[in-house]
Amino acid sequence: MHSTVEPLMRVEGVERIFGGRRKLFGGHRAGVHAVQDVSLDIMPGETLGIVGESGCGKSTLARMLVGLDQPTGGSIRFKGRDIADTLRNDFNGLARNIQYVFQDPVSSLNPRKTIRSILEAPLKHLLGLGRKERAERLGTLMDAVNLRPEFLERYPHEFSGGQAQRIGIARALAADPELIVLDEPVSALDVSVQAQVINLLADLKARFGLTYVFISHDLSVVESVSDRVAVMYFGRLAELGPARALFADPRHRYTRLLLDSVPAPGKPIVACEGSEGDLPDPYDPPAGCAFAPRCPAADDLCRSQRPALDAGAVDGAHLAACFHPPLLTGETAGDGQL
Ligand SMILES: Nc1ncnc2c1ncn2[C@@H]1O[C@H](COP(=O)(O)OP(=O)(O)OP(=O)(O)O)[C@@H](O)[C@H]1O
User: Fold this and answer.
1) CB-ligand 1 contact for 217 (6 Å cutoff)
2) Dist. CA 107–CA 134, nearest whole Å
3) Residue 54 CA to ligand 1 centre (angstroms)
4) 80/10 Cα distance (integer angstroms)
5) Where would one find the signal peptide in this protein (predicted)?
6) E-assigned strands of 106-166?
7) Does the beta carbon of 208 sit less than 6 angstroms from any atom of ligand 1?
């Protein structure tokens, strides 16, 4: 029998506009369209990578997923329940289920508190555990992130970036959440340390049955961790699909541009198509495709109409907001295709 798995989180038509209000003497001040019309499901047990250039809206989306910011339009449901509702009635309930790991590990930890007190807070306030249970959990948490128990008495500034990020991860784990949103969790770390933290995250995911949203501007990091990938451009989803298919056969030229920009040994550094060109004004988003000014395949249709996410779909799982998607491997050019 066919069984359907319900999404853990359902993001529907989410929009976040910053600012924008009525002027005192008439007229309207425009706001920044940071996130526009984003819809996606996050399935239990998956790692969904979200990738895009600086300013494309990744962090704004991430903050909304964990309830640190509210959409100005659309809805985000966790296990069927609108998180705006949950936030109003049961903030602790939301924080128990969904946790956030910040980009800058050291500054995300309170410098005046010991690691013990940082990790005890969620155990006490979110889970309501007594002293003995807390002590046990602290031992388990430190062990899970490979840190020595004596580190509990130290302060954040005494740790390297990699160790501090392990503490940030332990703090997120303390609440025993189902979903962790990791916002550029390794971007501030040395490359040698990045791999250790990525491996640790993979171990923890398997061990505790976690679901991750992994945000990064670094395509190679996203490729190594993700089951599915969402590519954001100018506040919108440009492409969404299984990681393997998306990296092997990108259906949006912006994804291809990102892939071409990843440096690799022996790969010549060349200016790739679309690397030049204007970014639209975030106060006044264009009517058509936001990537059109940078896209070699753009025509009048692209400049006047916005492609829906399924305009260049391969199938129901691999979607791309493009009227003229690049050819798939093995496909031959039809009419009008580049
Ligand atoms: N609080 C705010 N007020 C006004 N504009 C904001 C605010 N937060 C974000 N923005 C704007 O929204 C857009 C998206 O920003 P966001 O930080 O989400 O992007 P990002 O992809 O995470 O970039 P980065 O990786 O540099 O953080 C940008 O144009 C940014 O300037």
Assistant:
1) yes
2) 25
3) 8
4) 8
5) none
6) none
7) no
List the chain domain ranges: 234-324
Residue 61 Cα, ligand 1 centroid: separation in angstroms?
9
The tokens for 205 are: 């995911």
pTM of the prediction? 0.91
Is any ligand 1 atom within 6 A of the Cβ of residue 60? Answer: yes
Q: Which residues of 13-22 are buried (b: 16+ CB within 10 A; e: fewer)?
A: ebbbbeeeee
What are the pLDDT digits (tens) for 276-296?
566 788 888 889 999 999 999
320 phi-psi bin (left φ>0, alpha ψ -120 to 50, beta other): beta
ipTM score for this prediction? 0.94
Nearest CA to ligand 1 atom 4: 18
Atom of ligand 1 nearest to the CA of 183: 22
Instruction: Specify the length of the chain in residues.
Output: 338
**Residue whose CA lies nearest to ligand 1 atom number 28:** 55
Alpha-carbon dihedral 82, 84, 85, 91, rounded to 10 degrees: 120
Residue 141 and residue 200: Cα distance in Å, rounded?
13
